[in-house]
Structures are given as C-alpha cells and as structure tokens.
Amino acid sequence: MKNKTIQYFSDEYLESCKKMTPEQILNFLESFRLLHLEQKKSKSILISIKIPEDLLASFKQKSQILNVPYQQQIKKLMKDWI
C-alpha cells in the first residue's frame, strides 16, 4: 500500500485562497487536474533557468547523497509545491 502525504497549509495561504475569484479557483483546479491525470507520459519541455553555482552544487550534492537524480528532485519539488 502506498503511503499518502498529508499536506498542511499555513494560515497565510488559507487567507490568500479566500480572496481568490471563482475564475482563479477554476483555473487552479483545472491545472491541478491536468497535472495529475494518469497519462502514459506527459510531454516535457526544455527550460533555461539561472541558479547560483553554489546553490546548484549543494543541491546536486544532496541529491547524490540521497541517490536521487537532481532534475527528478526538482520536478518533485515543483509538483509538491503545486
């Protein structure tokens, strides 16, 4: 059985959600639905981003210690944040 992660929301985040318009809520829900659709594999795109060298080096080092490819970890962090 796969463990499910419990997500906790800060009071500030919940307050900001109360200010969302119905259209913003629908856009968020549709984006969330599309992100989590069970598809064979969604198309990926190549992006360019500037990251301080020391930050990237530390991130890669920690990923290597945890035996996780660093780009995979970046994608996981993005999904968790959404």
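The above is record 1. Record 2 follows with the same two-line structure.
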Amino acid sequence: MATIALPQLTGERMFITDGGIETDLIFHHGLDLPHFAAFTLLADEHGIAVLREYYERYLEIARRYDVGMLLDTVTWRASPDWGERLGYSPDELDAANRRAVRLAQEIRDAHEETPVLISGCIGPRGDAYSPDELMSPAEARRYHSVQISTLADAGVDLITALTITNVGEAVGIVRAVNRSRLPVVISFVVETDGRLPSGQDLREAIEDTDAGTQSGPTYYMINCAHPTHFADALDDDGPWLERIRGIRANASAKSHAELDESDELDEGDPVELAAHYRALLERLPNLTVLGGCCGTDHRHVAAIRDAWLA
C-alpha cells in the first residue's frame, strides 16, 4: 500500500473534524456508551443511523464553508484490551473495526462534493486521563498492531492516535503503522499545566517521539484539553511548533479530574472557545486541522471555523 499525500499538509485547505462524539451521544442523545466506546453502536441499525446523523452535521459545515472533513472512525476504544472488557472476542472486534471503516466510506461516498479523508482512529491502551501503566515502545507496537493492521486492511487513508499520554506508546504506535505505509498522526493529551499525564512537557514529548521514530509521525495534534491548558507551553519556540497541525480542544476549562467527577456536561461557550483557537494562529502557523473533543459538538466546530477564517 503506497503512502498517500495528505491535502492538509499543503496549507491550501482547512480540514475540520467532528467534536466530542462520546459526550455528545451520551448527554445530547441519552445513549449508554460503556467505557466511552462509541463503536458499540455499530451492533444494530438504530445505532448506525445515530452515527450517520451525527456525522451529517459536520459534513454540512464542511460543504457549506468549502472545507475538508477528516472523518474519524468510531474505533477509539476498539483495541484488544477494551474490546475484552466489553465482551468482544478478537474476531468480533476485528469485524467491528471493519464495519466502522465501511460506514465511514459510505458516508464519504454520499458526499462527493466535499474532500473527505477517512482516519482510522485509535486510542490509548489505558485510561487517557490517568494512565496506570506505561508500555515500552516494543510493547506498544505489539499491542496496537492488531487494530492498526485491521484498519489499514479495511482501507483507511491514515491512522490518528488520539489522547496519547506518553512517548513510549506514541513511538510504538508509529512503528506499528510504519508496516502499513500509511500516514500516522499522534495527538497528545495534556493536563492543565500543559504537560502530558506522564509528566513530560509537550515539546520534549514531540521531540522525543520524532527522535525515536526518525520523525515518523506525519504531524502532531493536541486534544482533550482546553486551549488555556497548553497555550503557555507553546511559548517555547522552536521547530517543534511547526510539527503541530491539529487541535481538538475540550469545551470546558476544567481539569480532567473535575470532568471525571461531574455528572453534567460543561459545554462552555462556543464563541469563546473559537476565540482561543484564533489566538493560537501566531504560535502555530501550520494548523490546518481543527475540531473538538469532550463537551464540543457541531456548534463549537462551526464557531471555530468562522473564527479561524474570519
């Protein structure tokens, strides 16, 4: 499989993503997503219909404003350990990952007027907020190779690893994706101090991942944190800032611990969040992929698009 050229690397077109799919489906649609696993909705036609409707809102934004859409598969939790917790056998989990890619392909095919890239979405092996055990790169490569191989074989355009908490896992993921020759994006999660949950600062995490993979990631992203949590970290000048091309921020400025303890969704203010994105423009000149994470929905992404291209 040949490596494809990603249009978001040219800077000629902005790409949006969706928002916080799990929080949207739980709080706005009243759905039960055990372990935040949206892929479980693929088990029946009703769940699939809900997912189609969910993505349609973002594709309408992309069509209306002539931007591209980076369509993540609903497979953030569809890796071996999480699948086992949810009662999926290896074969059932493989089928679910393939079903997620087929759904994304069907949605893309129904929107030929909009540039759509299908991103095979993977998540961390452990808890994205408080990882209790860190893997070596070799362990991470073995673990993530299972899901990555399935997504690559099913026909995704790239692999995006969201809410990655530490360099060892990031390096292992990149090495696993290298076998497929697909582009790979690493998106780190940070705490309110701008550091990864592992305690490492963002600059070191990006530089160490590049050093351990011969600059293997096609680019980096930051997700599952409010812009105020990492804005100061971006003051540390250097070529590493040019490696960041995507932001998927939380709607809320609360810490991960506070969000974990909350029974209500903090949606923040879409316009205010968009203004924080806009303020990042001077620090991150290569940003071309913009979307949301926990607490955000299509309203936030539309506001971010408006602020960014104003």
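Strands lie at 15-16, 68-72, 116-122, 158-164, 184-188, 219-223, 244-249, 289-292.
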